[in-house]
Amino acid sequence: MTRRWILAFAIGIAGILQLSVAAQPRRPAGEVLVFAAASLQTALDELVEPVQRSTGTRVRVSYAASSALARQIEDGAPAKLFISADLDWMTYLADRKLIRTESRLNLLGNRLVLIAPRSAPRTLKIGPGFALAAALGRDRLALADPAVVPAGKYARAALTSLGVWDSVSGKIAAAENARAALRLVSRGEAPLGIVYYTDAVADPGVAIVDTFPEATHAPIVYPAALTVAASPAAARVLEFLKTDAARVVFDKQGFSRPRRD
Questions:
Q1: Residues 167, 159: Cα–Cα separation, whole Å
Q2: Model's pTM, two decimal places?
Q3: Which domains, and CATH codes, for the chain?
Q4: Residue 257 binned pLDDT confidence (cut-offs 50, 70, 90)
Q5: How far are the Cα atoms of 126, 128, 146 from residue 160, in angstroms, in the given order?
Q6: Are the C-beta atoms of residues 231 and 59 closer than 8 Å to each other?
Q7: 181 near 212, Cβ under 8 Å?
């Protein structure tokens, strides 16, 4: 009698445990570390939850300048997916066989704008030889480091094309990435800056002065690719970023359609 009671009790406990396990919400499998250009932060922060819900994969995103992220991957950082703000840094990793080239695609596009603090707006029309240096006076122009950071490289190319780089090259406040340049202007620490359109619309503290003609710089393209360390979960994350659901968020944040690969 005692043995029967013990057996029945054990079976009951096992059933309860099974029901408890079944009632638990599905936990994301593993984690995908995404390295993404700083200018993608607003959009990707909004997409993390839908990505996790759709793929069942935990996602963590690290933001910085594309140049810094590419070098971290080269040094062995465990990123599974890389989204750059220009083609050069993706090619840098491809040349070193650190990405899966078959997964590479052009995900997004963007525009380049001149901004000012909303509290101290400026009127300045961008064109050949425009009076940017005069507008700055003794102050500095905020932009991402033009030597290595994509946003800064685009800005330098645009200003060179318009014939004004030499007049302002000694007045540059070089920031570590596009979002850092944006903050300098938003806080009123620089009277003018050059950032991506999507950065400008994400910060209510700045106003767009004018937009640079696309012909003044190389097309702004955000390529994405899996790293050689990528898992199947990372591939699912990349696939989600190509969906219409993700495109709605990117469109809302002001990103444009990418040029064709």
A1: 10
A2: 0.85
A3: 31-109+221-252 (3.40.190.10), 112-216 (3.40.190.10)
A4: confident
A5: 13, 10, 12
A6: no
A7: no
